[in-house]
Amino acid sequence: MNEIGIIQKGASEAVKSISEGEITSEEFVSACLEQIDANEERIGAWTHLNREYALIQAREADLARGEGKNLGPLHGVPVGIKDIIDTADMPTEDGTPLHAGRQPAADASVVQLLREAGAIFIGKTVTTEMACYAPGKTANPHDTARTPGGSSSGSAAAVASYMVPLAVGTQTNGSVIRPASYCGVHGFKPSHGFVSRHGLLSLSRFLDQVGMFARSVEDLALIGDVLMGYDDLDPDMRVRSRSNLVETAMTEPPVSPRLGFIRTPVWDQADDDIKGGFEELVEHLGEDAEEIALPGNFDSVVDLHQTVMEADIARNFHDDYERGKEKISPVLREMIERGQKVLAVDYTRAIDQRLYLNGLLGQIFDVFDAIITPAATGEAPIGLESTGSPIFCTIWTFCGVPAVTIPLLEGSNGLPIGVQLIGPKGDDARLLRTARWLEGAVSE
Asked: Can 124 be counted among the known catalytic residues?
């Protein structure tokens, strides 16, 4: 098999090929490294690479298979790790000169889970500055004059350009779903509290969520099953039975799901590609989709989200601001300074709204299996000075519900556009099943 064929394997297929001896982990990792060498200068997805270490891990994985040892669900497959997630064997610099050379003493909980699953670590993917708005060096693989989105820029671009089949990112507003849409890959943000954030740069306890990138729903489920385990080091996690995402996602729904198309209160920010694309999508789905409206209570969510995010950033980034605000970008500095002025009563009221809004969403999910809505305002914008607008992700991140985006649409410039699906909080497995069903329904 040639190396183009190897790197085009998704994670599930690669795990199967490695476990059955069709290919070795070393061959797969070597092919990924060659793809990085051929494209990294153009795309800039990585902030730290360790080729030798990656190959050592791959050889150890092949040795373990040869010795008949138990193999994990990601055995021998490389995974990209966003550079705000602590790794004991690689730097974690958070996209800021204030943390240059920072070497954590221990892995983040999600990194530990990936190691246990047999994943291979090639390096750390580029993040925007402290996972906020100031861009890193990454360009969009489909058109390097355009943004890949942010803040999980490098993770999305690395998967889209076949450098790795899987990558981990984070989302505090739209930092997984938006770059997945811009880069034409699948992105998944599980329910808030389902994946540990211990060992990650903290922006907002109430908004931060770990997410993942892949090139299929099955692969999202595969890595989701690995990462969605209880960790008492994250204060928002609760003990619960683990979902079998792969098993559920790969089954057919007993009946066709009912989808509610929601424009959201920010529909005026959608471009013509989005408006036309969703009109065609809803028409194609026929009786399986119905346009519905969010209650007016959601009109203020963007402001509520800003209140919480900026107040929390001001608190969590206080020390960095005090010791080096001249090294912080103007956009982040302004966010911190606005956050410093948020009143406690306004912050508390904003937090209190989440439970009420989720109750309203629950009424929608009593009727519909999932909501469909844009993942972004359109194709990836031209220019690398910003990462585009996260506005179509804000409501769902604020409410902490699961979201997945799949690359179903194409813009007027031939670039990918994602369709975002939203499910009830805690029902992540069924949401992935619905997303896979939707892919099939659109391809008919």
From this structure: no
